[in-house]
Amino acid sequence: MTARTHPFGKDLRAVLALGVPLAGSHLAQFLLAVTDTIMLGWYGVLDLAAGVIGAALFFTVFIFGTGFANAVMPMVATAAASDDDTEVRRSTRMGLWLSIAFGIAVLPFFWFSGTFLTLAQQPADVVPLAEVYLRIIGLSLVPGLAVMVLKNYLAALGRTQVALWLTLGAVVLNIGLNWILIFGNLGAPELGVRGAALASIAVQIATVLGLALYCALLPSLRRYALFQRFWRPDWAAMGLVWRLGWPIGVALVAETALFSAAAIMVGWIGTHELAAHGIALEITALLFMVHLGFSNAATVLVGRARGRRDQQALRGNARAATFLSISFALATMVVYIVFGPQLVGVFLSPDEPARDVIITIGASFLVIAAVFQLADGAQVMGMGLLRGVQDTRVPMWIAAFSYWGLGLPVAYVFGIRLGWGGEGVWAGLAVGLSAAALALMWRFWRGPGRSDAAPWALAR
Fold this sequence. Notes:
Mean pLDDT: 87
Number of helices: 15
């Protein structure tokens, strides 16, 4: 098949058709956490602190568990492109099995989370409330991970709109339930942070039921018989999902933990710096969801091309996805540099005494984030491309070394030892993410992305 069969414009449209709804779904998912933070902030400082600490710990565990869901996406895309309906069903079903098993296995960690929070020297008045929050919200992990598996299954089959609309509906439901359960409206008890946790459970259960019904009842998806004899184990398929999934989870946790460590170091510097760090990170995380959507689209399209053994399509889709991610990163660089103070100011009350100080610090972080965003977009795109060819083990080591072997030490030396402050910590983040971006992109384009490569034989 010649390159002419895959003109660049066609590849761009293919990436946009998948990537835009996926990015929208990620943005909506992000808004779930944002609405919890805002509404707990309206309720009380103690409950907000417990929710923030608890959510950070929950998210770290959750992000590792999503490794199995992320393994399902390339496996289903490749199998569907090969017209292997049985393999589509096997991969998705065992992804659900592993996600459910993981969610149950970590419940004791949530139950005894107070011990870990105490060892981490968190405020004594916050720990008991945060432990209660984690004991409740831990029950949402199983349905939450199942949601991720089904979303990735549908994305691999090109069904991205339903996940977007269901996630937007989940945001509305979450706001309503928070209003009732946190504040005690409509005759409900006033539960504070406990109410936010209960709302999260209800939202995840409602979402997974909606996705499951869609998967089971849509006529075009019945051919996969996803839930037929769901209780029967498939050890071979489970082994494949496990081998692809756990390295993805480790790589995701390595990146998440880098940002958590950065927050701790900025906290050593000062309260104003920590506030500015949190705001700047919230802004960059919001826009990062667009890069993540394009990365997921790249995983699906590369996985499909791999299933068809179409190397020209694989390269064309990879080029288009990379082009879109870089273009968006360049646009955000301009926004951060030109509008940084205004963006930070949105998060602060006009009456905040330290408003001007925090805006100045936050704007300086966003200048560094101009480079940071470019590197972050490139590394997540490199991950997505390599997942498409089912290469996850070496990328895990690349991520671990880049984030913890380079990024964290540089952040500590620049920010703490050399006294560069928060800007030094952020420079360390940029170094770690840039190293990961270069290594991951090199691995793809010098390996499965070469014109003469055979990536259908490169599964790790």
